[in-house]
Write a structure and sequence with these properties.
The complex is a heterodimer of chains A (586) and B (286).
Chain A lengths: L1 H19 L7 E6 L14 H10 L4 E3 L8 E3 L7 E2 L5 E5 L22 H12 L18 H7 L15 E5 L2 E5 L7 H4 L10 H7 L13 E7 L3 E6 L34 E6 L3 H9 L5 E3 L5 H4 E2 L3 E2 L1 H4 L4 E6 L2 E7 L4 H4 L2 H10 L2 H9 L4 E2 L24 H10 L11 E6 L2 H15 L5 E6 L1 H9 L5 E7 L5 H5 L19 H11 L5 H16 L3 E3 L1 E2 L1 E6 L3 E2 L15 E2 L1 H8 L3
Parallel strand pairs in A: 1-10, 17-18, 17-19
Antiparallel strand pairs in A: 2-3, 4-5, 5-7, 6-7, 8-9, 9-10, 11-22, 12-13, 14-22, 15-19, 15-20, 16-21, 23-24
Helix pairs in contact in A: 11-13, 17-18
Chain B lengths: L8 H11 L1 H22 L32 H37 L1 H16 L2 H12 L3 H11 L2 H15 L2 H8 L4 H37 L10 H11 L6 H28 L7
Helix pairs in contact in B: 1-11, 2-3, 2-11, 3-4, 3-6, 3-7, 3-9, 3-11, 5-6, 7-9, 8-9, 9-10, 9-11, 10-11
Classes of the chains: A alpha+beta (586), B mainly alpha (286).
């Protein structure tokens, strides 16, 4: 018996030994995503986690150039940048020829068919479909001729007719797509670089029905191999991917940093991408440490082990070939009030009091290791409209003042104010941030309880206006202040980007005025005016503009920080030779 | 005639219990924890876990026995608050689980037949669901928070006791004293609640002590998983915090919570054992 047991044990060891062995025959990229996603439907790609996954399989007309800075748009599925009419209202795109959808059983013989201009018409109609409630509709709302009318017409109808012609959204022939806008919209092209507007095939959507979000079939560099929404997602190189090549020019300095080593090579550069969904930061860190993740945002508790002098990589990590990237992100963190709630809607004093009681310096120290900047208003530095010299009076931490304002709000020492509910996600750090908020509010007598959710649950609550207070961060979708001010624009209310449902007639008026202006000193002046207004009105408790602190292993090549990450993965490469050497040092 | 023979089972059990040094120490530990919890609930003489000392991650010292946490709060004060939570969970879940277990078990054992069939089926089905899964689903349905923890643990904790009582009541209902009660015209209610139940009470007491520590452990697990206590410290959330803090070399929050839990769980186990010995009628007088 004992003998048999030892045989079983030794077999087990052999099996374990095999799985530990790295496979150096194919290039595999190992990534970590901190939140699970619901599925792969581009029209719901509202959060970064979903957008990053969907962007591996689906593609849009345009993308941000991977290397050039400042960020510029470059054609992706479009043959070239569009022809724009003199009045700035008509955009005509030529679409690349020979692009095919990934093979799928919904196509005849299982072979993916060629992408046509009409696929974009269909995909954009889906965004506007009143039955589908896309979380990206705010992006196109009121911009394309005939699209709002189409949406309204079918709002209460039983079935939406996709075959009806829309005057501003037409396929002129199989490879020509034309948009007609109702007004000049300078940010319009940015919308076409976002995951929301990716091309989906009608056969796939209709063929899979309810299951569509689990069976993505795009034109993109990777195809989905395995999807378990709470553990891991595996992608394989798309064998029918078109000829798309690594850029041959970049920003100054890119050559020296080795970002052009793969110039002109066919994309994607790796054979397989494995995304492990790990919510907690400690296992994320351990996975990075043993080389099971190629890249990671440094968890707050591991900052001191990673960074010395506030900017340099710790020698013990540098000796393992690990590299450090610290870049200011174009983002703003905040705690949002739900303005549908009468408590906050008509009580600016209450909002001011809560903002005054929140200690941002302390939060910066505790959660960001002092790498973040205090947010005085909605626009992060690096986007025009941000006023570097402006100090928001309600962002300064002042308990006495907060108490005074709270009394003026009608709740002296919090008396009469019901217990508030703060919605967050269920990771340790999120809970600690919640506890910090609860504690700061308790100091002025405002009682708050924490309610934890999974990420999809939280998204659902904000989309249905069911969250009272919630912690969020908004990262730029494109480098324009309009993307941020849209978060406070009334008509963008949930399920749009204005998830705090803030409404202010004056703000809406200025916003509308700014959206039709081209980038100019006048527009920047208007943005600055809105910036100050967004500070004064305290629609949210502003938090931070963060710095992304990222570590990557030496074998990961071509990693350049990009704010708009949805198309990044195809440009990354793995150096198997150096991985063989470096793995042994870990 | 020696005086021993006139002592009741309870007096005898008590005298045996106090002779067992470890049992006595355990009893003292339990009483101390209960007192601490009571004082913390009433807000008498216990440090306030909310107040920040301003300096985060201070190592344990004479001033702060268990150091401070990331918000500069006294970890000792958090342990005390955790004690309050743990003891309240133990107490309230026992108060919920024990009456359910006793009544259901007694009914099944006493009446037998189809009543027993139905109840046994229910008990078997209920106990076939993995406990932690059941706890998680109950907290998810009722929303997270302390109240859910009480109810979830209370609603799941009665199964073992019900089985035990059922078997014991079956044994007792055939005994002479019950037959005598029948002969004197005692009804079901009288036989079950006046005659049989007092004779199985010792099982309830032993079980309470074990139920108490199981509830404490379950609360820690639920809170560790983020499903338990929200917005206030518990040993479970402290251990959850500590998981990441260990990377910084901050071990005191883990040590404080684990130590506090270890001592009380150990004490309840020893006490449970000692109670079983003390209340065993077969050992009476030995």
């Amino acid at each position: 018996m004992l003998k048999r047991l030892t045989i079983i044990l030794s077999l087990l060891l052999v099996v374990l030994g095999c799985t530990r062995e790295q496979n150096y025959n194919e290039k595999v990229l190992n990534l970590i995503s901190p939140q699970k996603i619901k599925g792969f439907d581009p029209i719901y790609a509202a959060d970064m986690y979903a957008s990053n996954e969907i962007g591996k399989v689906y593609e849009g007309l345009l993308e941000f150039h991977y290397l050039k800075r400042p960020y510029v748009l470059t054609p992706n599925l479009a043959e070239s940048m569009p022809e724009v009419s003199k009045d700035g209202l008509t955009y005509t795109f030529k679409i690349k020829k020979g692009v095919v959808f990934q093979d799928s059983k919904v196509f005849p013989n299982g072979k993916g068919r060629e992408l046509k201009a009409s696929d974009f018409v269909y995909s954009i109609q889906r965004m506007a479909d009143p039955k589908l409630q896309s979380t990206g509709w705010w992006l196109l709302d009121g911009k394309i001729a005939g699209l709002n009318e189409w949406r309204d017409k079918y709002a209460s109808a039983e079935k939406v007719n996709y075959d009806e012609e829309i005057s501003g959204l037409k396929a002129l022939d199989t490879h020509t797509l034309q948009f007609k806008l109702v007004k000049p919209v300078p940010q319009f092209l940015y919308a076409l670089a976002m995951t929301f507007t990716s091309a989906v095939a009608r056969e796939v959507v209709e063929g899979y029905g309810q299951e569509f979000q689990n069976y993505p079939v795009g034109t993109g560099p990777f195809k989905l191999g395995y999807f378990d929404n709470s553990n891991r997602i595996v992608y394989e190189k798309n064998p029918t991917f078109r000829d798309k090549f690594y850029p041959t020019e970049g920003a100054p300095g890119d050559e020296e940093r080795g970002f052009l080593a793969d110039a002109g090579k066919k994309l994607p550069l790796v054979d397989k991408v494995i995304v492990n969904i790990i919510v907690e930061s400690q296992p994320q860190w351990l996975n990075f440490q043993k080389g099971s993740a190629d890249i990671l945002g440094v968890p707050k508790d591991n900052f001191d082990q990673t960074v010395v002098n506030g900017k340099d990589l710790h020698p013990s990590m540098a000796s393992k070939g690990i590299k450090l990237e610290m870049v200011n992100s174009l983002d703003t963190t905040y705690i949002a009030f739900n303005h549908e709630d009468p408590l906050f809607k008509n009580n600016i004093k209450l909002r001011q009091a809560m903002s005054l009681a929140y200690d941002r310096d302390e939060a910066n120290k505790l959660f960001y290791n002092n790498t973040a900047k205090t947010a005085h208003s909605i626009i992060p530095p690096g986007i025009s409209g941000h006023k570097a010299d402006y100090k928001n009076p309600y962002v300064a931490f002042n308990v006495e003042q907060a108490k005074k304002v709270l009394a003026e709000a009608g709740y002296p020492d919090g008396k009469g104010l019901p217990e508030l509910s703060y919605e967050t996600v269920g990771s340790t750090v999120a809970r600690q941030m919640g506890e910090f908020f609860v504690k700061k509010m308790a100091d002025i007598g405002v009682k708050v309880k924490i309610s934890t959710n999974t990420w999809p649950e939280l998204v659902k609550k904000t989309n249905t206006k069911a969250a009272q207070l919630f912690g969020m961060a908004w990262g730029a979708d494109y480098p324009d202040a309009e993307n941020f001010f849209g978060l406070l624009y009334g008509p963008n209310e949930a399920p749009g980007s204005n998830s705090s449902n803030y409404k202010n007639a004056e703000m809406d008026k200025l916003f509308k005025q700014s959206t039709i202006m081209q980038d100019s000193p006048e527009r920047t002046a208007l943005y600055e005016q809105m910036y100050v207004m967004a500070a004064d009105q305290v629609p949210w408790i502003y938090g931070m503009h963060r710095t992304a602190v990222t570590v990557l292993h030496g074998w990961l090549k071509n990693y350049k920080y990009i704010e708009f990450t949805q198309t990044q993965i195809q440009y990354l490469n793995v150096d198997l030779e150096s991985k063989k050497v470096l793995v042994n040092k870990l | 005639m020696s005086s021993q023979d006139t002592r009741s089972l309870w007096a005898d059990a008590f005298s045996r219990l106090v002779k067992d040094r470890w049992a006595l120490i355990s009893l003292l530990v339990v009483v101390t924890y209960a007192l601490v919890a009571l004082m913390a609930t009433l807000g008498i003489g216990m440090p306030d876990w909310r107040s920040s000392l301003g300096i985060e991650y201070l190592a344990p010292s004479g001033e702060f026995w268990f150091g401070t946490d990331l918000f500069g709060r006294d970890v000792f004060a958090k342990v005390i608050h955790g004690t309050k939570i743990a003891m309240s969970v133990g107490l309230i879940t026992s108060l919920i689980a024990i009456p359910i277990g006793v009544v259901i078990g007694a009914l099944a054992g006493y009446f037998g037949g189809w009543v027993d069939d139905i109840i046994s089926w229910f008990i078997t089905t209920f106990s076939s669901i993995p406990n932690i899964m059941l706890l998680i689903s109950i907290t998810l349905i009722m929303g997270k928070g302390l109240l859910s923890v009480y109810l979830a643990l209370g609603m799941t904790g009665w199964v073992g006791l019900a089985r035990l009582i059922r078997g014991e009541v079956m044994k007792h209902k055939e005994r002479e004293y019950v037959q005598a009660a029948s002969a004197l015209g005692g009804g079901h209610y009288r036989k079950l609640f006046v005659h049989i139940l007092p004779n199985v009470t010792h099982l309830v007491i032993i079980n309470t002590s074990l139920q108490f520590q199981t509830a404490i452990k379950s609360e820690v697990i639920l809170s560790y998983l983020g499903l338990g206590v929200q917005g206030e410290p518990s040993w479970g959330t402290m251990i959850d915090d500590a998981r990441m803090e260990l990377a910084r070399g901050v071990w005191w929050q883990l040590a404080g919570a684990t130590l506090a839990m270890f001592i009380i769980v150990l004490a309840f186990n020893i006490l449970g054992d000692a109670l079983r010995d003390a209340l065993d009628p077969k050992l009476k007088g030995k």
